[in-house]
Design a protein that fits this description.
Layout (H helix, E strand, L loop, with lengths): L3 E5 L4 H17 L2 E7 L18 H25 L4 E6 L4 H11 L4 E6 L4 H7 L3 H7 L4 E5 L2 H32 L4
Parallel strand pairs: 1-2, 1-4, 2-3, 4-5
């Protein structure tokens, strides 16, 4: 059904959940991934900033491109480990949601996967999440993945519970062996 899936990559846990979800979908549908990073805009505040703290727009752009390249490389490596072909791209625009929607059209993607921290819609609007705008702007379906931290915690607690059951069974077995040999 899906041939090319665009996934929004940034440095959040929610983005990591989106990358993993997109890799799983790509495996299922034998699709390619378009890993896309939205470059932040350089915004000059109206406050007086001492020269020691000033950053030039070119330094800011260089730093954000390097950071974006690292994030995309990491996501690409994860896809490669799972046998999924991926491509990388970065972009910027006045409106991040429109930037992602336009990238999906430009790269012929038929699904967009994006992460969210699971906050309510009002908080997402106030903090600048692209999810509400992306759902409106996109010409293809948008899949929203929630932060994977609760899932990791559940897996961890399940492993701990399994280990304690296993340890308890070993203790009972050892006690039984000692009783059979008359050691107790």
């Amino acid at each position: 059904m899906f041939k090319k899936i665009l996934v929004v990559v940034n440095d959040s846990a929610a983005s990591q959940a989106a990358v993993l979800g997109a890799i799983g979908l790509a495996q299922t549908h034998r699709a390619d991934l378009m890993l896309f990073h939205v470059l932040p805009r350089f915004e000059v505040m109206g406050l007086d900033v001492p020269d020691a703290f000033a950053v030039s727009s070119s330094d800011f752009e260089l730093h954000t491109r390097e950071k974006g390249s690292q994030l995309l490389a990491r996501a690409s490596a994860e896809a490669e480990l799972e046998g999924v072909q991926s491509f990388r791209a970065m972009g910027f625009a006045e409106n991040d949601a429109k930037c992602v929607a336009d990238a999906a059209v430009l790269h012929h993607c038929d699904l967009i996967v994006v992460g969210t921290e699971g906050r309510n819609a009002l908080v997402r609007l106030l903090t600048g999440s692209i999810v509400p705008g992306l759902i409106t702007a996109a010409s293809v379906p948008v899949m929203v993945c929630k932060d994977s931290v609760p899932l990791v915690k559940r897996r961890h607690s399940a492993k701990v519970h399994f280990r304690s059951q296993k340890k308890s069974a070993l203790v009972k077995q050892k006690a039984s062996e000692l009783t059979q040999h008359g050691a107790v």
